[in-house]
Amino acid sequence: MEYTAQLQAYREQVERGIDALLPPADTRPTRLHQAMRYSLQAGGKRLRPVLVLAAAEAFGPAPAAALPVAVALECLHTYSLVHDDLPSLDNDDLRRGRPTAHRQFDEATALLAGDALLTYAFQLLPRHYAASPALCTALAATLAEAAGSEHLIGGQMEDLLAEKKADATAAELDFIHLNKTAAMIEAALVAGGQCGGATAAQLTLLRTAGRHLGLAFQIIDDILDATADTATLGKTAGKDARAGKTTYLQLHGREAAGRHATAATDDALAALAGLPGGAPFLQRLTAEMLGRKS
Amino acid sequence: MEYTAQLQAYREQVERGIDALLPPADTRPTRLHQAMRYSLQAGGKRLRPVLVLAAAEAFGPAPAAALPVAVALECLHTYSLVHDDLPSLDNDDLRRGRPTAHRQFDEATALLAGDALLTYAFQLLPRHYAASPALCTALAATLAEAAGSEHLIGGQMEDLLAEKKADATAAELDFIHLNKTAAMIEAALVAGGQCGGATAAQLTLLRTAGRHLGLAFQIIDDILDATADTATLGKTAGKDARAGKTTYLQLHGREAAGRHATAATDDALAALAGLPGGAPFLQRLTAEMLGRKS
Question: Could you say which architecture CATH assigns to the domain A3-290?
Fold first, then answer.
């Protein structure tokens, strides 16, 4: 299948998976389930679940088995956005072009909906992989470690601390990017590989590709935050500068930031080239991420 | 071993397990790991992890294998307290006789520490049960379902909604108690049984016992909130009345509430009696909960 059609097919599969796998909006407590769905069904690039499906398919023809863990990863990503947007963290009003969860509902509901999305990721795994307990255990490890205090949440905590002092070093910024962003992109590729039956060496390639793709992705995010407008991004633009936050752009300059993103993309492509058949879809997606406008 | 000594031994095992299994306080991000430890090492009755260990031991002599899941359950319980105490929910200053996490650190750190404790529960399971993937998968299902949007978080959400309308019905209050409190006590007994190799029928007995013990526990909590003082409780007393919250006590009266707690305790004891040897430690603990003063 041609790249754009394949990307579209993966995204549609993810949207259908989210709708089918989340608790129904009329299940008690309805307000909580509505807030979970509101946050998860706001669209977005679906980068992480698409990576899960594509990585699984790089090893075989049946990505359907990877759909529940793809949805689980998107639940984790979405919970982290819902909590990041809360008044005590970024206090943001806009996400994916719509009011953030605490603006649409209220702060308590958004807090609990975030907790529920985080927990739901770990409900989905035993519900859908209980027949393959070794796979279920491996997927749980991949997701929980990536989302934990030493990666996703740790990156968020250090981001918060860096904001307060406003003179973060390049090493601190790398820690934040590697953990807040790259860890979950790594986890997406690894989880896909685990579903597809990748060998340990192939999982290492996926992890390497994910780390570099994640770094490139975050550098581009920083560039877009400084150069694109709110309507294009679907989230508040120029936030970093207004928050007095040290960004990759500010630390290295626009040009060097662009070079670093290109270098990280090349490293990701090199790792992907070692997968069966060179994983052409993943290579193309990685290259496209470098040129994205939102 | 005599009951009090056995209870003390279980509690010491839990305290040592928490200290050994949590991320070290000097691991980056240190502030986050310190907040996780501050919240988890505040003491408390350790009811849930003690139930895990005791339920495992009811089926064999080696509760050590149950320690990681006991700690995982206490992580889940503690995260739910940390988030409940936040300004957007109960806005409480005191927990287990010490400042709540957001008072000791700040709101953002408490939010993230809660997220990290929740996630850590699901890191602990694959870290410690990967050699028994079927057990790992079963434990993950038990914990995630109990902590999810239809149980723990769902109960919390309905509690919040009930507070706002201040005229909750008995059925609504039962939903809240069954999900906000009893579900995790059920999960503790079931997880212990799963570690001990309980049969499906025995797991059902444990689940039944947990539900009734959980209900009794919550009714006593409501009674203590209205009748005990803050120093004895280690948390703010009289909160429910001040919040205009419908409580079990208010709905049924002090005397009927006491009778219901006794009846639920009797139901729990009857279920426990069906376990091997009658599970005397669990029976005694269940009976003691009825007469507790804090």
Answer: Orthogonal Bundle (1.10)
